[in-house]
Amino acid sequence: MEPLAKRLAEAFGVSGFEDEIRAAIRDEIAGLADSVEVDVLGNLVALRKGTGGGRRVMVAAHMDQIGVIVTHIDAQGFMRFAAVGGVYPTACWGAQVRFKDGTVGTIGLDGRVDRRGQLPELRDMYIDVGATSRDEVQQQVGDVAQFWPSFSAQGHAWFSPNMDDRAGCIALVQLLKELQGVEIAHDLYAVFTTQEEVGVRGARTSAYAVDPEIAIALDVTLTGDIPYPRPVMDVALGRGVAIKVQDSGMISHVGLNRALVATAEAEGIPYQLEVLAGGTTDAFAMQTTRAGVPASCLSFPSRHVHTPSQIVDRRDVEAAVRLLVGFLRQDIAL
Prior knowledge:
CATH superfamily of the largest domain: Zn peptidases
Order of helices and strands: HHEEEEEEEEEEEHEHEEHEHEEH
CATH class of the largest domain: Alpha Beta
Number of helices: 7
Strand content: 25-35%
């Protein structure tokens, strides 16, 4: 999966500007689905029809990633910016960013801030592309940038600023690849959603259109395997896919989780149970669409979420794919 991971991680896709990552995914899944469509919000919806007698199953991973958006450019060419999604100011100073046209810049901290004793805010920062005047800057107000550099692998670990949620996209593409030639009864809607980082917007509209009977999100979660974790979590890198029990937006369907756990245990797939104190995923939007949908989330433990260097373990991604293949090959009774 590493070549796939590298390709998807290096594609541009800040929330609301997912064209490049969507095109890359569409190319990767060509021939793997019976239909592939793009809806009004930019969600990529791939339908793999089942043999009949099964359920409508929606599996979603969001294409978008956090980033920054230009709000002002001064006479010297320094760009002030705001956050797109949940950007931590403490993770920004000195980080490199890349605009869609390939321009790179460094996030600087202006001289009004006491660098030794004061926590900076985004308003204290600027993007420096090495210009000496406004005329040398190709960007304009409203342009977005993603954190950079992108993907690298080391042992089982994948490093990238956008493992949230390119890890989910990688898993969902790989799922379609591994189901090629495999008969399943269920209609599988593999949906690559937009604008999750700014309010699970793509999942909300696409789930309304698909009207699934079962919904599963693929996304990252926090870990408890770092020094002095806060909150304390019984989730760690490399111990398997995390089956979400609850987060701040949703409580997973008990029957669906029971079926996922049973599949994992029957097939010897490593798994963990996850309770996340803060944050939510596309599962929240899918669960609450129309009259309600049995929903859960398969999570990838990730260190340093929403920073320029997030880490996931390849083995946890592989475990999620194996679990989904096993789950979809059986009759689903909740």
